[in-house]
Structures are given as structure tokens and as C-alpha cells.
Amino acid sequence: MRTLMAYAAGLLFGLGLAISGMTDPARVLSFLDIADEWDPTLAFVLGGAVITTFIGYRLVLRRSSPFFGDKFQLPTKRELDSRLLGGAALFGIGWGLSGYCPGPAIASVVGLSTPLVAMLVAMIGGWWLAKRFSGSR
Questions:
Q1: SS3 letters for 49-109?
Q2: For residue 17, which of 22, 86, 124, 125 is within the disulfide window of CB 3.0 to 4.6 Å?
Q3: pTM over 0.70
Q4: Cβ-count burial of 8 within 10 angstroms (0-12 exposed, 13-18 middle, 19+ buried)?
């Protein structure tokens, strides 16, 4: 049941990205380009995600355990370090250059294009490098 719920959540997330237009890199790049024809759509999508997460966490964490698991798996690390900041910077640079972040990129695979392939190769390469140099194998 856990696997089924994970797939359902992924499908819901992907549908949300597609319906909101966030799988279109031109829309994302228009949001990041505040000097030209700025498109505020992404701000509303992000705002909706923040509000949903804010409310959702408060409701879910009232429970003693999740519906489909033994315990909640929440991050415990609170400090900022160079790995976190470097990863965030690389994510932002890649997002700004390509218009894709991992969720929309994977949701866009059906319309494969050369820029999307380049982004996916870079993303997989980044995962591999992070795993190789993080010491966790």
C-alpha cells in the first residue's frame, strides 16, 4: 500500500505541474526574467504549495504515525553547511539555465527535447557525483 500511495502522490504532483503549466520551461524562465516580460504564474503555484504544505504538516503531524508507515521520517539536521548551500546554488543555476527542476523535467519526458535531455543527463550526473563524493554508497 505504501508503494501505491507513493505512486499516487507522484501522479498527483505531476498532474499539478502539468495543469499549472510548470512543465513549460519558457513559463519558468519568464518568471525568472523580471527585466523583460515577467510572468507571475510561478509565484501563485509556489504560494499555493507553501500554503498547502503549511496546513498539511499541521494536520498530519497531529497524528501519532502516518497512515501508511510506522513513523514519520522528518529531517533532523537544522544547520546550514557548504554542501547544502552548494547544492542549492547548483539547483538554482540549473533551473535558471534550463527552466526545468527535477519534478517538471521528469513530468516532461513524454515531450523529449534536446534541452530536456541535457538537463536530465546533468541531473543524473549530479546525483551520481553527490553520491560518489558524499561517502554514502
A1: HHHHHHHHHHHHCCCCCCCCCCCCCCCCCCCCCHHHHHHHHHHHHHHHHHCCCHHHHHHCH
A2: 22
A3: no
A4: exposed
